[in-house]
Amino acid sequence: MLEIRNLHASINGKEILKGIDLTIRDGEVHAIMGTNGAGKSTLSHVIVGNPAYEVTEGEIIFNGKNLLEMNTEERALEGIFLSFQQPVEIPGVSMTHFMRAALNARRKHEGLEPLPAGEFLKLMREKRKIVELDSKLANRSVNEGFSGGEKKRNEIFQMAMLEPRFSILDETDSGLDVDALRIVAEGFNKLRRPETSAMVITHYQRLLDYLRPDIIHVLIDGRIIKTAGPELALEIEEKGFDWIKEEAGL
Amino acid sequence: MEDRNSFVREVAEKTYEYGFTTDVQTEIIDKGLNEDVVRLISQKKGEPDWLLEFRLEAFRYWQKQEEPRWGHLKMPVIDYQDISYYADPTKPSDKKEGPREIDPELMKTFDKLGIPLEERLALSGTAVDAVMDSVSVKTTFREKLREKGIIFCSISEAVREHPELVREYLGSVVPYRDNYFAALNSAVFSDGSFVYIPEGVRCPMELSTYFRINARGTGQFERTLIVCCDNAYVSYLEGCTAPMRDENQLHAAIVEIVVMENAEVKYSTVQNWYPGDKEGKGGVLNLVTKRGHLRGANSRLSWTQVETGSAITWKYPSCVLSGEGSQAEFYSVAVTNNFQQADTGTKMIHLGKNTKSTIISKGISAGKSQNSYRGLVKVGSKAEGARNYSSCDSLLLGSECGAHTFPYMDVQNDTAIVEHEATTSKISEEQLLYCNQRGIPTEEAVSLIVNGYAKDVINKLPMEFAVEAQKLLGVSLEGSVG
After folding, report:
1. Can you give the pTM of this predicted structure?
2. Cβ(B86)–Cβ(B190) under 8 Å?
3. Domain A2-247 CATH class label
4. B4 to chain A: which residues are within 8 Å by CB?
5. What ipTM goes with this model?
6. Among A49, A91, A105, whose Cβ lies nearest the Cβ of B452?
C-alpha cells in the first residue's frame, strides 16, 4: 500500500505540489488526470526519488516504510517502478547488460544469488513476448534508435522483468498508435497481481478503456481536487476540466 | 542527500589496489646522471661496444636538448640528478658465473598482481615477460615459442644472444634524436621485451610484458622492440602498475615496431600506473614514445590503449605508413580523475600509396583532471589515394574537469581523403536517474555508462584484457559522480 500525506514538493525553489493526499491499496489501479503543468509528472518523479525535486513537507509511506528516507535505487529495490514519459538513451549499453545489472541488483537486495546467464536470457525471451518485442532487443543499446512506440514497449518489458509491487505509467500512451497502445495496455494487464498496484497518468480515455482503473483523481495546480470512480474519466473526456475547477472553486 | 554524500566519501577514500611495495633486496645505483652512469648501466648489462656508443651519443644529444613544454600539461620540475637510473631486484648467484637469482618474493609479487610466472599457472595462451624496475625477472613459454622460430625475451638478453637483430632494428623507428625523452631513454634504457616473429609464422599465443616499478627514487626506462617479418602475425599486450609513493616516479619508454610485407601486429596496452592521491600528490610521470613502421606492402598495425593510470600521460603511439596499401589503426580510451593529466593521441604519417588509417579516441574526464587528445594526420606528396578517418569523443563527468582536442592535419596530396569528427558529451542526470530507478546503484551506473561509451575500443582488446579494462574503467571513476 502506498500512502501519500500532505505532500509538498518544489523544483528550483518553485512549488509544484501543494499538499497531495493519496492512498493506493494493493490490487488497485488509480488514474491521475489533469491539465498540462498541473504536477502529474512531478508527483511520479517525487515518488521515485528524482534528486532534482525537493520535498518540503509531507510523507510517502510504502508498505510501512518511509520512502523519503531512501534514495532512488533503494526505492526501486523496494519495488517501485516508473515507466518514463521520455525514456533516455544509453549508447553502447546493451539491453541484456542493462537488465542483468538491474535484475541482479534486485536479487542481491532480496538475498538471492545473481541469475545464471542461461536462465537470464531465457527470462528475457519470455518477457519480451508480453510486449511483442523481437529478438534483436537483447543486443540493442538501451533505447538507442528505438521508435517512440518501441521505447514505451521497452518500459513495460522492463516492468515485466523486474515485477515491481507498485508501478507508475507516466503518459505511457502518448505518441502511440492504436496497435502499440493495445500491446502496451494488454502487456500491463498481464502483469497485474492481487498484491501489485499502479498509478496511471494520462490525458486520454483510450488507455483507461483497456486498463479499467478503480479510481480517478483530478490533479490541478498541485492539488487533487476531485476523486471518483471510473465514470469520471468518461465525463472528463466529454466535458473537459473546467466544470471540475468551478466545482472546486478555482 | 546525506547517504549520497557518505557514498562519495566512502569511495573517495578507497585506495589504489596495486599500491603495495615488495620488500626485496634491490641493488640500486647512486642517484645522478652523467657519462659514467651510462657506462655503468651498459657494463652491468654486459653490452657490446656499439651499444655503449649508441647510448653515449644519445646522452650527449640529450644534454643539449630542453624538455618539451608544448603539452597541455602542468608538468612538475623533474630533477634528473635526483633519480637513480638502475635498480635490480634480483640477486647475484652464489656461483661466480651463474645467472642472477630470483627472490621468491618477486614471484609472489607477480602472483599478487594476477600475473603468475609459473607456466603451469599462467593464463592459457599468454606468454609473459615480467619486468620489475630495471630488470626482466622472467619470461615464460620461451622454449615453446622457440620451436616456431619466435624469439621472445628481454631486450638485455636479445643484445647478448641476437646482437645482429637488435643492432639492425634498434633506433630504426624511433631515433634518439626524435625527442627529449627518446634521447634520455636511448641513453639509459634498462629492460623491456624483444619480439621477433620470423617470415610466415603466426604467433600461436598472446605475448605480453608486465611492467612494475617497485624501488623508491628510481626511474624506469622501458625499451621494447618488435619485428614482424613477411606474412607473420603477433598480438602483443602490455600492462603496468606501480606502488603508491608521495613523490613522482618517472617512466620514460620507447616502443618500436617494424612490420614487413603482409604482416600484422596488434599492440594493446592497459596502463594503470599509480595516478597519485586524490590531492594530486605523487603518481607516475608516463612519458612515452611509441611508434610503428609499416614498411612492407599491405602491412597492418593497430594500437589499442586503455589509459587509466599515471599522474601525467604524454604519449602518442604513432604509425609511419610506408608500404603500399598498409593500414594502421589507433583505438584509445583515456580516463583521468582527481588531478590526473593526459595529453595523448597519435600520429599517422602516410607516405605510401593507398594507405589507410583509422583513429578512434575516447577521452573520459572526471574530478579536476585535464584530458587532451592531440593527433597529427600527415599525408605526403606521394601518398596517392591515402585515407584517414578520425573520431575523437570526450565525455565529461562533473564540471571541474576539462577535455581538449588538438587535431593537426598536413595533407600534401590532392587525392587523399581525410575526415575528422569530434563530440563532447556529459553523463546526464537523466541517464543516472534511469539506472537508479531500475535499482542500479550510482557507482555501477557510471561504470555501465562509461563502458558503453568506450565499447568500440574495449571490443578491440583481447578477451582477458577487455575484462580487466572494463573493471578498471569502473574503479578509476569511483566517486566521481555524487
Report:
1. 0.79
2. yes
3. alpha beta
4. 51, 71
5. 0.96
6. A91
